[in-house]
Amino acid sequence: MGMKTPAGENGSIPRHISIIMDGNGRWAQRRGLPRSAGHKAGAETFRRIARYCKDLGVEYLTVYAFSTENWKRPAEEVGTIMGLLEKYLLDSIAEMEEDRIRLRFFGDLSALSPRLQELIARTAEIAGRLPGCFQANVCLNYGGRDEIVRAARALAESGEEWSEENFERHLDSAGIPDPELIIRPGGEYRVSNFLLWQSAYAEYVFSPKLWPDFQTEDIDDAIARYRTRDRRFGGVQT
Ligand code: IPE
Ligand code: IPE
Ligand code: MG
């Protein structure tokens, strides 16, 4: 520390990595399987990648699991995703403490079923006993625009002065540093309403690989690409 990072390099591992977990449906369709099989495989990939990020020393991993727009999908597909989520929550409640993984949820959770909301509340209780541990933020019924509107409303109601600092304290991500690196597998080059505020100076890495095919090596590769970026933040390279 205190040493200047060489030009064009970004020292160490990012503190915060975010991932748009895309491509589950196409992964399944290519195998002649129902889309639900892709979501199941994608959930397994998430577990694997979360553990890997934790082992690398990443502090925060934020993943996009279900957007405010994903309700447009057929009820059966939404049901499958919510079912997988319930299973993930039950497993997490049993394993979080042993795994030392703090789980948190971003998004408007009030639209989720009472059962899911209850399980999420239980994970929040456990997370409270794991200060300083690796934290996984799962975005559910999450939209960047929705988050901004909710934060704006809360700020207005608080009567606090309007500033970026005060506004950020009302975002779902309050208290968490912005992601340095956002990875989008699945071959699309768009943001799809993810972390609109927090991504102001994030470095993006896009991958053609579908999320269920994503490997720990693909995380290494994304970090390597991130490290080659010249992050200027509006300034000039000195
Ligand atoms: C991402 O995979 C998971 C969710 C959006 C819930 P998709 O289901 O979007 O997969 P593709 O993009 O259709 O392949
Ligand atoms: C973004 O993927 C949302 C999640 C990964 C949860 P989508 O598949 O919903 O995004 P679009 O429709 O391709 O933009
Ligand atoms: Mg998609």
Describe the fold and architecture.
The chain has helices at 24-30, 35-56, 75-99, 114-127, 144-158, 164-168, 216-227; strands spanning 16-20, 60-67, 101-106, 134-142, 181-184, 203-206. With 238 residues, the chain is of the alpha/beta class. The two termini are 19 Å apart. Residues 1-8 have low confidence and may be disordered. The structure holds 3-methylbut-3-enyl trihydrogen diphosphate (2 copies) and magnesium ion.
Lateral arrangement of strands in the main beta sheet: 3-4-2-1-5-6
Mean pLDDT: 95
Helix content: 40-55%
> DSSP helix count?
7
Give the tally of β-strands: 6
Structural class: alpha/beta
Gap between N and C termini, in Å? Answer: 19 Å
Strand fraction equals 15-25%
Radius of gyration: 18 Å
Unreliable residue stretches: 1-8
Shape: globular
Helix-strand pattern: EHHEHEHEHHEEH
Please summarize the sheet with the most strands.
6 strands, parallel
Ligand inventory reads: 3-methylbut-3-enyl trihydrogen diphosphate, magnesium ion
